[in-house]
Amino acid sequence: MGLGNVSEGREMQEGSRNGGWSGNGYEIVRLCGSMSLKERDGLVRTLKTNLTEVGLRRMAISLVGKVLSPKPVNRDVFRGVMRKFWQTREGVEIESVRDNIFTFQFGNMEDKRRIISGGPWSFNDALIVLEEPEGTRDFQRMVFNKAEF
Hints:
By secondary structure, this protein is of the alpha+beta class. It has 2 domains: 3-40, no CATH class; 51-141, RRM (RNA recognition motif) domain (Alpha-Beta Plaits). The chain is built from 5 helices and 5 strands; from the N terminus they run αααβαββαββ. The chain has helices spanning 3-17, 25-33, 51-60, 75-86, 109-117; strands spanning 62-67, 92-98, 101-106, 121-123, 126-131. A 5-stranded antiparallel sheet has the order 2-3-1-5-4. β4 (121-123) and β5 (126-131) form a beta hairpin. The longest helix has 15 residues, at 3-17. The radius of gyration is 26 Å and the shape is elongated. It starts with a helix and ends in an 18-residue tail after the last strand. Residues 62-131 form the DUF4283 domain. This is DUF4283 domain-containing protein. InterPro entries: DUF4283. It holds the Pfam family DUF4283.
């Protein structure tokens, strides 16, 4: 048994004591390298081919908004208040993205249009600027500098 094998044996023993992790990155690379999928393994999972279409439909009934406040907004209170004010027919999913930026996923286009046309909206005396997402546009590039009055 060579020196490498003794070391591997000790790490394997340590690995069994540590829940299977040997701590040796080279061992993990070696094991991953030995893994392969063969044609006989067969189909594992079929992905939906219309994911882009579904994503575009969801984006069409979505808005991104920013509460223009120097203070952080209480996310849970914001969600509850906006749902109550907007009273959408099919509900609205409100998710916090970061720094007072939220996404709004409506159940239908009519609710989205009503919210846009019913603005401007505010929360705790701070203006909420709403934008429609475009493609794979990143939230960091949205400027939130226009609101219709």
